[in-house]
Protein backbone atom coordinates (compact mmCIF):
# COMPACT_ATOMS: atom_id res chain seq x y z
CA UNK A 1 0.00 0.00 0.00
CA UNK A 2 1.46 3.37 -1.07
CA UNK A 3 1.79 6.38 1.23
CA UNK A 4 -0.98 8.18 -0.70
CA UNK A 5 -3.33 5.21 -0.41
CA UNK A 6 -2.62 4.88 3.32
CA UNK A 7 -3.36 8.57 3.74
CA UNK A 8 -6.68 8.25 1.90
CA UNK A 9 -7.66 5.19 3.88
CA UNK A 10 -6.70 7.05 7.05
CA UNK A 11 -8.88 10.01 6.08
CA UNK A 12 -11.80 7.74 5.21
CA UNK A 13 -11.31 5.86 8.49
CA UNK A 14 -11.21 9.11 10.42
CA UNK A 15 -14.43 10.27 8.80
CA UNK A 16 -16.19 6.98 9.50
CA UNK A 17 -14.80 6.95 13.05
CA UNK A 18 -15.91 10.49 13.68
CA UNK A 19 -19.32 9.67 12.31
CA UNK A 20 -19.58 6.61 14.57
CA UNK A 21 -18.53 8.63 17.61
CA UNK A 22 -21.05 11.30 16.72
CA UNK A 23 -23.78 8.71 16.36
CA UNK A 24 -23.02 7.23 19.76
CA UNK A 25 -22.89 10.64 21.44
CA UNK A 26 -26.14 11.78 19.83
CA UNK A 27 -28.09 8.52 20.23
CA UNK A 28 -30.47 9.78 22.91
CA UNK A 29 -30.97 13.12 21.18
CA UNK A 30 -31.63 11.30 17.92
CA UNK A 31 -34.27 9.04 19.45
CA UNK A 32 -35.88 12.01 21.13
CA UNK A 33 -35.95 14.02 17.90
CA UNK A 34 -37.27 11.18 15.75
CA UNK A 35 -39.86 10.31 18.41
CA UNK A 36 -41.15 13.87 18.52
CA UNK A 37 -41.37 14.05 14.73
CA UNK A 38 -43.30 10.81 14.46
CA UNK A 39 -45.80 11.90 17.11
CA UNK A 40 -46.94 14.83 15.00
CA UNK A 41 -50.12 14.57 12.90
CA UNK A 42 -49.25 12.89 9.61
CA UNK A 43 -51.58 13.79 6.76
CA UNK A 44 -49.85 11.36 4.38
CA UNK A 45 -49.93 8.31 6.66
CA UNK A 46 -52.46 6.52 4.45
CA UNK A 47 -50.91 7.53 1.10
CA UNK A 48 -50.31 4.36 -1.01
CA UNK A 49 -46.61 4.94 -1.67
CA UNK A 50 -45.12 2.23 -3.87
CA UNK A 51 -48.52 0.75 -4.70
CA UNK A 52 -49.35 2.47 -8.01
CA UNK A 53 -48.99 0.06 -10.89
CA UNK A 54 -49.18 0.07 -14.67
CA UNK A 55 -47.92 -2.34 -17.29
CA UNK A 56 -44.43 -3.61 -16.55
CA UNK A 57 -41.93 -3.95 -19.35
CA UNK A 58 -38.25 -4.77 -19.69
CA UNK A 59 -35.88 -3.09 -22.12
CA UNK A 60 -32.45 -4.57 -22.76
CA UNK A 61 -30.22 -1.68 -23.78
CA UNK A 62 -27.69 -1.71 -26.59
CA UNK A 63 -24.96 -2.51 -24.05
CA UNK A 64 -26.93 -5.35 -22.46
CA UNK A 65 -28.42 -3.81 -19.31
CA UNK A 66 -32.03 -4.74 -18.49
CA UNK A 67 -34.09 -1.66 -17.57
CA UNK A 68 -37.37 -1.82 -15.66
CA UNK A 69 -40.14 0.16 -17.36
CA UNK A 70 -43.72 0.90 -16.29
CA UNK A 71 -46.41 2.31 -18.57
CA UNK A 72 -49.42 3.93 -16.95
CA UNK A 73 -52.47 5.90 -17.98
CA UNK A 74 -56.21 5.48 -18.66
CA UNK A 75 -55.80 3.00 -21.54
CA UNK A 76 -53.26 0.84 -19.68
CA UNK A 77 -55.46 0.51 -16.61
CA UNK A 78 -58.57 -0.28 -18.66
CA UNK A 79 -56.86 -2.99 -20.67
CA UNK A 80 -54.79 -4.59 -17.90
CA UNK A 81 -56.38 -3.66 -14.61
CA UNK A 82 -52.99 -2.44 -13.45
CA UNK A 83 -51.48 -5.95 -13.64
CA UNK A 84 -48.20 -6.77 -15.31
CA UNK A 85 -48.61 -8.79 -18.52
CA UNK A 86 -45.00 -9.58 -19.28
CA UNK A 87 -41.49 -8.96 -18.11
CA UNK A 88 -39.95 -10.97 -20.93
CA UNK A 89 -37.81 -8.84 -23.22
CA UNK A 90 -38.36 -11.45 -25.98
CA UNK A 91 -42.14 -11.14 -25.74
CA UNK A 92 -43.31 -8.83 -28.56
CA UNK A 93 -45.67 -7.16 -26.09
CA UNK A 94 -42.64 -5.96 -24.08
CA UNK A 95 -41.47 -3.82 -26.97
CA UNK A 96 -43.28 -1.02 -28.73
CA UNK A 97 -46.87 -0.60 -27.42
CA UNK A 98 -48.32 -0.29 -30.92
CA UNK A 99 -51.89 -0.86 -29.73
CA UNK A 100 -51.98 2.57 -28.11
CA UNK A 101 -52.51 5.77 -30.08
CA UNK A 102 -51.95 8.23 -27.25
CA UNK A 103 -51.47 11.75 -28.58
CA UNK A 104 -48.92 12.64 -25.93
CA UNK A 105 -46.71 10.58 -23.61
CA UNK A 106 -45.12 11.92 -20.43
CA UNK A 107 -41.71 10.32 -19.71
CA UNK A 108 -40.52 10.63 -16.09
CA UNK A 109 -36.78 10.31 -15.33
CA UNK A 110 -35.88 9.95 -11.64
CA UNK A 111 -32.86 11.19 -9.71
CA UNK A 112 -29.68 9.84 -8.12
CA UNK A 113 -30.25 7.13 -5.49
CA UNK A 114 -34.01 7.14 -6.14
CA UNK A 115 -36.25 5.12 -8.45
CA UNK A 116 -39.42 5.55 -10.49
CA UNK A 117 -41.55 5.48 -7.31
CA UNK A 118 -40.20 8.96 -6.48
CA UNK A 119 -42.73 10.26 -9.03
CA UNK A 120 -45.64 8.99 -6.90
CA UNK A 121 -47.62 12.24 -6.78
CA UNK A 122 -46.93 13.20 -10.40
CA UNK A 123 -47.85 9.74 -11.64
CA UNK A 124 -51.03 9.80 -9.58
CA UNK A 125 -52.01 13.13 -11.09
CA UNK A 126 -50.99 12.61 -14.72
CA UNK A 127 -52.16 9.01 -15.18
CA UNK A 128 -55.78 10.10 -15.12
CA UNK A 129 -55.49 11.86 -18.48
CA UNK A 130 -52.14 11.01 -20.03
CA UNK A 131 -50.03 8.05 -21.03
CA UNK A 132 -47.07 7.97 -18.63
CA UNK A 133 -43.79 6.10 -19.08
CA UNK A 134 -41.63 5.65 -15.97
CA UNK A 135 -38.29 3.84 -15.82
CA UNK A 136 -35.65 2.90 -13.29
CA UNK A 137 -32.32 4.24 -14.48
CA UNK A 138 -29.56 1.63 -14.72
CA UNK A 139 -28.37 0.27 -11.35
CA UNK A 140 -31.36 1.90 -9.61
CA UNK A 141 -34.68 0.43 -8.49
CA UNK A 142 -35.52 -2.78 -10.33
CA UNK A 143 -33.15 -2.20 -13.24
CA UNK A 144 -30.02 -4.28 -13.67
CA UNK A 145 -26.71 -3.21 -12.16
CA UNK A 146 -24.15 -1.80 -14.57
CA UNK A 147 -20.40 -1.63 -14.10
CA UNK A 148 -18.62 1.51 -12.96
CA UNK A 149 -17.33 2.22 -16.47
CA UNK A 150 -20.91 2.26 -17.78
CA UNK A 151 -22.27 4.46 -14.98
CA UNK A 152 -22.08 7.77 -16.80
CA UNK A 153 -24.49 10.57 -17.61
CA UNK A 154 -23.86 10.11 -21.33
CA UNK A 155 -24.83 6.45 -21.08
CA UNK A 156 -28.02 7.42 -19.23
CA UNK A 157 -28.83 9.76 -22.10
CA UNK A 158 -28.44 6.89 -24.54
CA UNK A 159 -30.65 4.70 -22.34
CA UNK A 160 -33.35 7.38 -22.49
CA UNK A 161 -33.08 7.49 -26.29
CA UNK A 162 -33.71 3.74 -26.38
CA UNK A 163 -36.62 3.99 -23.94
CA UNK A 164 -38.23 6.60 -26.19
CA UNK A 165 -37.59 4.51 -29.29
CA UNK A 166 -39.29 1.46 -27.81
CA UNK A 167 -42.10 2.84 -25.69
CA UNK A 168 -43.07 6.25 -27.05
CA UNK A 169 -45.00 5.83 -30.32
CA UNK A 170 -45.85 9.53 -30.69
CA UNK A 171 -44.80 12.92 -29.33
CA UNK A 172 -43.72 13.22 -25.70
CA UNK A 173 -42.81 15.51 -22.84
CA UNK A 174 -39.65 14.68 -20.88
CA UNK A 175 -39.52 15.34 -17.13
CA UNK A 176 -36.29 14.90 -15.17
CA UNK A 177 -35.47 15.34 -11.49
CA UNK A 178 -31.84 15.83 -10.38
CA UNK A 179 -29.80 13.18 -12.24
CA UNK A 180 -32.86 12.59 -14.43
CA UNK A 181 -32.60 16.18 -15.66
CA UNK A 182 -28.93 15.56 -16.47
CA UNK A 183 -30.02 12.47 -18.40
CA UNK A 184 -32.26 14.67 -20.55
CA UNK A 185 -29.37 17.09 -21.17
CA UNK A 186 -27.16 14.18 -22.23
CA UNK A 187 -29.91 13.07 -24.62
CA UNK A 188 -30.02 16.59 -26.07
CA UNK A 189 -26.25 16.50 -26.51
CA UNK A 190 -26.26 13.15 -28.30
CA UNK A 191 -29.61 13.23 -30.14
CA UNK A 192 -30.57 16.87 -30.78
CA UNK A 193 -32.73 15.84 -33.75
CA UNK A 194 -35.32 14.37 -31.36
CA UNK A 195 -36.21 17.76 -29.90
CA UNK A 196 -39.03 19.45 -31.75
CA UNK A 197 -41.09 16.86 -33.60
CA UNK A 198 -40.67 13.93 -31.19
CA UNK A 199 -39.90 15.67 -27.90
CA UNK A 200 -42.31 18.59 -27.61
CA UNK A 201 -41.37 19.94 -24.16
CA UNK A 202 -39.00 19.44 -21.23
CA UNK A 203 -39.23 19.94 -17.47
CA UNK A 204 -35.99 20.19 -15.49
CA UNK A 205 -36.62 19.79 -11.77
CA UNK A 206 -34.00 20.34 -9.05
CA UNK A 207 -31.13 19.73 -11.44
CA UNK A 208 -27.97 21.30 -12.81
CA UNK A 209 -26.11 21.73 -16.08
CA UNK A 210 -22.77 21.33 -14.30
CA UNK A 211 -20.23 22.51 -11.71
CA UNK A 212 -21.65 20.35 -8.92
CA UNK A 213 -18.11 19.92 -7.61
CA UNK A 214 -18.21 23.58 -6.60
CA UNK A 215 -21.22 23.30 -4.29
CA UNK A 216 -20.78 24.56 -0.74
CA UNK A 217 -23.55 22.31 0.64
CA UNK A 218 -24.32 25.10 3.07
CA UNK A 219 -20.84 24.79 4.63
CA UNK A 220 -18.28 27.55 5.21
CA UNK A 221 -15.98 28.00 2.20
CA UNK A 222 -12.86 26.42 3.72
CA UNK A 223 -14.71 23.42 5.10
CA UNK A 224 -16.51 22.95 1.80
CA UNK A 225 -13.15 22.82 -0.03
CA UNK A 226 -11.89 20.14 2.36
CA UNK A 227 -15.06 18.07 1.89
CA UNK A 228 -14.80 18.24 -1.90
CA UNK A 229 -11.10 17.32 -1.76
CA UNK A 230 -11.54 14.15 0.28
CA UNK A 231 -15.02 13.15 -0.94
CA UNK A 232 -14.03 11.37 -4.21
CA UNK A 233 -11.45 9.08 -2.59
CA UNK A 234 -13.66 8.53 0.46
CA UNK A 235 -16.67 7.59 -1.68
CA UNK A 236 -14.48 5.26 -3.74
CA UNK A 237 -13.10 3.51 -0.66
CA UNK A 238 -16.53 3.14 0.92
CA UNK A 239 -17.87 1.82 -2.39
CA UNK A 240 -15.29 -0.98 -2.37
CA UNK A 241 -16.59 -2.04 1.03
CA UNK A 242 -20.18 -1.57 -0.09
CA UNK A 243 -21.66 -4.71 1.48
CA UNK A 244 -20.42 -3.79 4.96
CA UNK A 245 -21.43 -0.15 4.57
CA UNK A 246 -24.91 -1.21 3.43
CA UNK A 247 -25.38 -3.22 6.63
CA UNK A 248 -24.47 -0.13 8.63
CA UNK A 249 -26.90 1.97 6.61
CA UNK A 250 -29.76 -0.42 7.31
CA UNK A 251 -28.92 -0.46 11.01
CA UNK A 252 -28.91 3.34 11.22
CA UNK A 253 -32.36 4.07 9.79
CA UNK A 254 -33.20 6.72 12.42
CA UNK A 255 -30.03 8.62 11.60
CA UNK A 256 -30.78 8.30 7.89
CA UNK A 257 -34.31 9.57 8.57
CA UNK A 258 -32.95 12.74 10.17
CA UNK A 259 -30.35 13.30 7.42
CA UNK A 260 -32.95 12.79 4.67
CA UNK A 261 -35.36 15.12 6.41
CA UNK A 262 -32.70 17.81 6.86
CA UNK A 263 -31.12 17.70 3.39
CA UNK A 264 -33.99 16.48 1.21
CA UNK A 265 -36.81 18.63 2.56
CA UNK A 266 -36.94 22.34 3.24
CA UNK A 267 -39.97 23.03 5.41
CA UNK A 268 -39.02 20.61 8.16
CA UNK A 269 -41.91 21.60 10.43
CA UNK A 270 -44.64 20.45 8.10
CA UNK A 271 -43.16 17.60 6.09
CA UNK A 272 -44.88 14.27 6.64
CA UNK A 273 -42.78 11.60 8.44
CA UNK A 274 -44.30 9.05 6.09
CA UNK A 275 -42.96 10.97 3.08
CA UNK A 276 -39.51 11.19 4.67
CA UNK A 277 -39.57 7.43 5.39
CA UNK A 278 -40.59 6.77 1.80
CA UNK A 279 -37.73 8.87 0.41
CA UNK A 280 -35.21 7.41 2.85
CA UNK A 281 -36.22 3.85 1.95
CA UNK A 282 -35.46 4.52 -1.73
CA UNK A 283 -32.07 6.03 -0.89
CA UNK A 284 -31.23 3.18 1.48
CA UNK A 285 -32.19 0.61 -1.16
CA UNK A 286 -29.54 2.01 -3.50
CA UNK A 287 -26.34 -0.01 -2.94
CA UNK A 288 -23.31 1.95 -1.77
CA UNK A 289 -21.35 0.66 -4.76
CA UNK A 290 -23.92 2.29 -7.07
CA UNK A 291 -23.64 5.54 -5.12
CA UNK A 292 -19.87 5.40 -5.58
CA UNK A 293 -20.06 4.42 -9.28
CA UNK A 294 -22.20 7.41 -10.25
CA UNK A 295 -20.55 10.00 -7.99
CA UNK A 296 -17.73 10.90 -10.44
CA UNK A 297 -20.26 11.23 -13.28
CA UNK A 298 -22.30 13.73 -11.28
CA UNK A 299 -19.26 15.76 -10.25
CA UNK A 300 -17.93 15.87 -13.84
CA UNK A 301 -21.30 16.63 -15.42
CA UNK A 302 -21.14 19.60 -17.79
CA UNK A 303 -23.92 20.01 -20.35
CA UNK A 304 -24.44 23.77 -20.41
CA UNK A 305 -23.69 23.81 -24.13
CA UNK A 306 -26.42 21.21 -24.75
CA UNK A 307 -29.09 23.55 -23.40
CA UNK A 308 -29.24 25.32 -26.78
CA UNK A 309 -31.08 22.25 -28.07
CA UNK A 310 -33.83 22.69 -25.47
CA UNK A 311 -34.46 26.27 -26.57
CA UNK A 312 -36.45 24.86 -29.51
CA UNK A 313 -39.17 23.44 -27.21
CA UNK A 314 -41.15 24.80 -24.23
CA UNK A 315 -39.08 24.24 -21.09
CA UNK A 316 -40.02 24.47 -17.42
CA UNK A 317 -37.36 24.78 -14.73
CA UNK A 318 -38.44 24.14 -11.13
CA UNK A 319 -36.30 24.36 -7.99
CA UNK A 320 -36.72 24.79 -4.24
CA UNK A 321 -35.13 27.91 -2.80
CA UNK A 322 -33.50 25.83 -0.02
CA UNK A 323 -32.03 23.17 -2.29
CA UNK A 324 -28.43 22.53 -1.17
CA UNK A 325 -27.71 19.72 -3.61
CA UNK A 326 -28.65 21.56 -6.82
CA UNK A 327 -29.03 25.15 -5.59
CA UNK A 328 -31.29 27.77 -7.20
CA UNK A 329 -28.24 29.45 -8.78
CA UNK A 330 -27.86 26.41 -11.01
CA UNK A 331 -31.48 26.65 -12.16
CA UNK A 332 -31.06 30.38 -12.75
CA UNK A 333 -27.99 29.66 -14.88
CA UNK A 334 -30.03 27.23 -16.98
CA UNK A 335 -32.83 29.77 -17.29
CA UNK A 336 -30.31 32.39 -18.46
CA UNK A 337 -29.16 29.96 -21.17
CA UNK A 338 -32.81 29.29 -22.10
CA UNK A 339 -34.51 32.69 -22.49
CA UNK A 340 -37.87 31.11 -23.36
CA UNK A 341 -37.89 28.80 -20.33
CA UNK A 342 -40.23 29.34 -17.41
CA UNK A 343 -38.39 29.31 -14.06
CA UNK A 344 -40.30 28.52 -10.86
CA UNK A 345 -38.60 28.84 -7.47
CA UNK A 346 -40.65 27.28 -4.70
CA UNK A 347 -40.13 28.88 -1.26
CA UNK A 348 -39.11 26.88 1.84
CA UNK A 349 -38.45 23.78 -0.27
CA UNK A 350 -35.38 21.62 -0.84
CA UNK A 351 -34.14 18.94 -3.24
CA UNK A 352 -36.98 16.39 -3.10
CA UNK A 353 -39.44 18.99 -4.27
CA UNK A 354 -41.66 16.53 -6.17
CA UNK A 355 -42.44 14.84 -2.82
CA UNK A 356 -42.34 17.90 -0.60
CA UNK A 357 -44.41 20.24 -2.78
CA UNK A 358 -46.17 17.93 -5.25
CA UNK A 359 -48.90 20.46 -5.95
CA UNK A 360 -46.42 23.07 -7.19
CA UNK A 361 -44.61 20.54 -9.37
CA UNK A 362 -47.87 19.14 -10.75
CA UNK A 363 -49.11 22.65 -11.57
CA UNK A 364 -45.88 23.42 -13.43
CA UNK A 365 -46.14 20.15 -15.40
CA UNK A 366 -49.79 20.70 -16.29
CA UNK A 367 -49.02 24.24 -17.44
CA UNK A 368 -46.17 22.91 -19.60
CA UNK A 369 -48.39 20.21 -21.09
CA UNK A 370 -51.08 22.78 -21.90
CA UNK A 371 -48.48 24.83 -23.77
CA UNK A 372 -47.73 21.75 -25.87
CA UNK A 373 -51.37 20.90 -26.48
CA UNK A 374 -52.20 24.44 -27.53
Automatic annotation (TrEMBL):
Q: Which UniProt keywords apply?
A: Hydrolase
Region called Disordered, residue ranges: 64-98
The record's listing under InterPro entries reads: AB_hydrolase_1 (IPR000073), AB_hydrolase_fold (IPR029058), Carboxylesterase_BioH (IPR050228), Epox_hydrolase-like (IPR000639)
Q: Which residues form the AB hydrolase-1 domain?
A: 105-358
The answer to keyword Hydrolase applying to this record is yes
Q: Where is the composition biased (Basic and acidic residues)?
A: 69-80
Specify the superkingdom.
Bacteria
A molecular function (GO) term: hydrolase activity
What protein name applies here? Answer: Alpha/beta hydrolase
Amino acid sequence: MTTTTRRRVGIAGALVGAASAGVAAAALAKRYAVGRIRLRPDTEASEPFGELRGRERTLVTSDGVALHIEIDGPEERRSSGGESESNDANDPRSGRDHEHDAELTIVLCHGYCLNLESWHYQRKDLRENYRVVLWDQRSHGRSQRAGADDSTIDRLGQDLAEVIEEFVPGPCVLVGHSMGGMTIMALADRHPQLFGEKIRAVALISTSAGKLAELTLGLPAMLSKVVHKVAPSTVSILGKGGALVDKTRHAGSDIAFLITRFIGFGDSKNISPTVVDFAESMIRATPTEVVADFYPALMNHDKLSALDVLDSVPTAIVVGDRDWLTPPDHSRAMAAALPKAQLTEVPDTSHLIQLERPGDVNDALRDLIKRVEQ
